[in-house]
Specification:
The protein has eleven helices and twelve strands. The protein is an alpha/beta fold.
Length: 367
């Protein structure tokens, strides 16, 4: 589907200040179905750190990469456009058409270092504006990783707008381990001489620092067991790691870094990673346990068995405390955190369960 844009006006920010104008890029699949004048089949898919609005489909003129959750949306799939109206937006702070550090400020220059600090709650506030723009009174929210943070924030902050939610491979608050690894990624970018305090858009970008950040991140996205099985100590083909060459796993990480720096803005990476660091459902709501025990909206929760970035225990905490959590499942996968993107059959079953609970899929409600 073609990328579209919503101009959503000024947005006050949680930590102070405001953005004078916010634009979100979004895509849709399917058609809205109305009952008593209200759209009743809307699903909002929430992307992770380096995702965007292009959930599925090939690359195109306005989209440099293929969809990031292939197999989720399509005829006969979990999100069938004949049954549901699917919306996905590039998050506030992103770099694929939405307002972020690389976008143009009111003075005609890139925001750069002037882009204000934002939080997950600000991102959801912008998504609420998008829902209003599209006339969506209530919707199903589905997300993993950073998208799962926003799904939970929708349930905690705007429960009247959510009929059911699916949160995958995420947490109710950033842990010390997550803050540590994510802050290290930020440090890698800001230490690059090309960073220039975030005002690099007229010159060379800090691609070296961004590449290091991606290498660090990717190690947290995959499991140690998978890397050992897949690469072990094997050398990269044609290279000698004992004579200025690389091990195969090094080549793999180099490849992941090169792919990201071609399509992603370093300022957005810093902005969004910082937002994940400050993620805490309990902030200003009486603490984490208090807010979780008030989550009564139907919630399906999923964890990945080998996820070392968002360990199973973090999703288990949500499932045990949230009265609305009607199903918790640990998806067995060797792939670590990325399993929520790879194990599409297991994830699709959870999506179908969520839609059924919300009563928007034409399937019986049975959770």
């Amino acid at each position: 589907m073609t990328k579209q844009f919503a101009e959503l006006g000024p947005l006050p920010l949680e930590l102070g200040g405001r953005l004078p104008a916010v634009r979100l890029a979004y895509q849709t699949w399917g058609l809205p179905r109305r009952r008593s004048g209200r759209i009743v089949n809307a699903v909002l898919v929430l992307h992770a750190l380096t995702g965007d609005a292009h959930v599925v489909g090939p690359a195109g003129p306005d989209q440099p990469t293929p969809g990031w959750w292939d197999g989720l949306i399509g005829p006969g799939l979990a999100l069938d456009p004949d049954q549901v109206y699917v919306v996905a937006a590039n998050v506030l702070g992103g770099c694929q058409g939405s307002t972020g550090p690389a976008s143009t400020a009111p003075d005609g220059r890139p925001w750069g270092s002037r882009f204000p600090r934002i939080t997950v709650r600000d991102q959801v506030a912008a998504e609420v504006r998008l829902a209003d723009f599209l006339g969506l009174d209530r919707l199903v929210v589905i997300g993993g990783s950073m998208g799962g943070m926003r799904a939970l924030e929708w349930l905690a902050g705007r429960p009247e707008r959510v009929s059911a939610g699916l949160a995958l491979a995420t947490s109710a608050a950033a842990s010390a381990d997550q803050i540590g690894t994510q802050s290290t990624q930020i440090a890698a970018i800001t230490a690059d001489p090309a960073w220039r305090g975030g005002d690099y858009h007229a010159g060379p970008a800090p691609v070296g620092g961004l590449g290091v950040a991606r290498r660090i991140a990717h190690l947290t996205y995959r499991s140690a067991g998978e890397l050992d099985t897949r690469f072990g100590r094997s050398p990269q083909a044609g290279e000698d790691p004992y004579a200025d060459g690389r091990f195969a796993v090094q080549s793999y990480l180099d490849h992941q870094a090169a792919k990201l720096v071609r399509r992603f803005d370093a300022g957005s990476y810093v902005c969004l990673t910082d937002a994940m660091n400050t993620h805490d459902l309990g902030r200003g709501r009486g603490g984490l346990a208090a807010v979780l025990t008030r989550l009564e909206t139907p919630l399906i929760a999923g964890a990945i068995s080998t996820d070392r970035l968002y360990p199973v225990r973090l999703m288990q905490e949500i499932a045990e405390l949230a009265p609305g959590c009607e199903h918790f499942e640990v998806i067995e996968s060797p792939y670590g955190h990325d399993g929520f993107l790879i194990e599409i059959d297991a994830v699709s079953a959870l999506v179908r369960r969520t839609l059924a609970r919300a009563g928007v899929s034409g399937q019986p409600v049975s959770c």
